[in-house]
Amino acid sequence: MTSYSRDEDVVVKAVVLLGAPGAGKGTLAQYLLDNYKVIHFSTGNLLRNEIKRETDVGLLVKSLIGSGALVGDDIINEIVASNLSESLSGDELILLDGYPRTLAQAKYLDEISGGIMKSVLRVIEIDVDPDVVVARIAGRKVCSSCGATFGVLDRLDCCVRCGGELISRVDDEESIVRNRLKEYAELTLPLSDYYASDRLVKVSGNDAPVDVACSVDAVFRGFGISK
Ligand code: AMP
User: Fold this and answer.
1) CA of 12 to the centre of ligand 1 (A)
2) Using one digit for the tens of pLDDT, what is the confidence trace for 146-155?
């Protein structure tokens, strides 16, 4: 884990989970939702919702999501701008999952709401080996009703949260996963440098979820965020 020196005067308002597909962001996000007062802000969920509702944006992005490619910055930034301001006005910590994914998105996020994110945003990067990712993703299932994600080791017949049907995500096939990893390295990994000087902490994601959660608890304490 990298070290982080806390500015006692700053109240952290948003945390970005940065990590390759399969790094464990979904599992970690669920742990944080269950244990902290947080709002889960997932652009993947927002997009899947648009597709389900067959909105104009949903129809536009459906084939892109199926291929594992990223949706254009303009579309994503617009979705974020229209959904994030309400969350920013509340007391809860905002957990940004899957956004930002490009430098353009990170810079856009830093300009939202008068530039507030430049001081109140922190980033947790989950480092994981590509082979671990491919093995993990191959067996991943998602609930078709509530969107909860389960790993191959969960061995479930239906969703334990709502009883919904578990299906494989269309973007979880191996060739698509490899595409997403390549794209992550090219487009998203540069964010690690963008945030490195003052807002980033790295955590190993190769370990069991319970160990990753423990590391992130320590990072949250460093941010001044308690359970
Ligand atoms: P996720 O659930 O975060 O893995 O996102 C699923 C898919 O939604 C991704 O493979 C992209 O096609 C799209 N997506 C989600 N967030 C973003 C983003 N910030 N920028 C571009 N595309 C995104």
Assistant:
1) 24
2) 888 887 667 7
